[in-house]
Write a structure and sequence with these properties.
- By secondary structure, the chain is mainly alpha-helical.
- The chain is built from six helices and no strands.
- Helix 1 packs antiparallel against helix 2 and helix 2 runs antiparallel to helix 3.
- The protein is globular and about 35 Å long.
- The N terminus is likely disordered.
């Protein structure tokens, strides 16, 4: 199956990729993406380590985070290798869903499945919910199969 497809990540046997769905092309491959340059999210400064992890996760937990802030938080956490547990991945996916970034949420799940990072039922449900919030029922069905 092609890299990035759900089949390659333990998704569908048909090889259909969620990236083929409308709007999915906006989701970057996080393993190779570099965080955007520019001013940090207000109040975060240039923190590193545990403090940065908590601050970026707080951005994703916030109901007031804009799509740009949620995307930046995810990129910062991924680039620093700070998303390790299913709970942290679920926080990220829920935040992306609130910010209407369903394709990015789907990418987190696909990456978690392919890397063995622990894609549990809660993470999968959160990803399907993110797709639903973005009116992407086809993507949700693809993730289920």
């Amino acid at each position: 199956p092609p890299e990035g497809s759900l089949a390659a990540a333990g998704g569908t046997s048909s090889g259909r990729s969620w990236r083929d769905l409308p709007g999915a092309a906006a989701a970057p491959a996080y393993r190779t993406s570099r965080p955007p340059h520019g001013p940090p999210v207000a109040g975060l400064g240039e923190a590193h380590g545990v403090g940065a992890k908590r601050a970026w996760l707080d951005v994703l937990r916030s109901v007031e985070a804009s799509p740009d802030e949620a995307r930046r938080a995810l990129l910062e956490l991924r680039s620093r290798g700070l998303l390790r547990t299913p709970k942290e991945l679920t926080i990220a996916v829920k935040g992306l869903g609130r910010a209407s970034l369903w394709a990015e949420a789907a990418r987190v799940l696909v990456d978690a499945r392919s890397s063995g990072a622990g894609a549990d039922d809660i993470l999968e449900t959160a990803t399907i919910s993110a797709c639903e919030k973005g009116s992407q029922w086809e993507a949700a069905l693809t993730l289920l199969s």
